[in-house]
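hey so i finaly got around to running the thing on Alkaline-shock protein from Intestinimonas butyriciproducens. pasting the sequence first so u can double check i didnt mess up the copy paste, my clipboard has been acting weird all day
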Amino acid sequence: MRLETERGAISISPDVFTNITGAAATNCYGVKGMAVRSTTDGLVHLLRRESMAKGVKVRFNDDATVSIELHIIVDNGVNLTAVSRSIMSEVRYIVERITGVKVKNVDVCVDSMVIG
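ok and heres what it spat out for the 3d tokens, dont ask me to read them lol
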């Protein structure tokens, strides 16, 4: 994404958005980690911290905003609505504060629940 300011242009890599988003989401209560669905066996796998960007999809919109889709794994027994709302709020706040780019929407997909 490229931002124009009065002092010049700023280019922000998509990796910056995925790393910030993944870190913000995994810091929320009830989130076990980011998830990815395997193409070979179709199972959902928990991602390690260094590869959690695979569970984040960032789409750059024409109106200089971003749309974010997260795939997560949550702990057993958490309120899914409350956790999802918390993630949406936290991700929107952190991304807008750090990058200065407006977040149009945050979609949270709960792919699995970990028991224990």
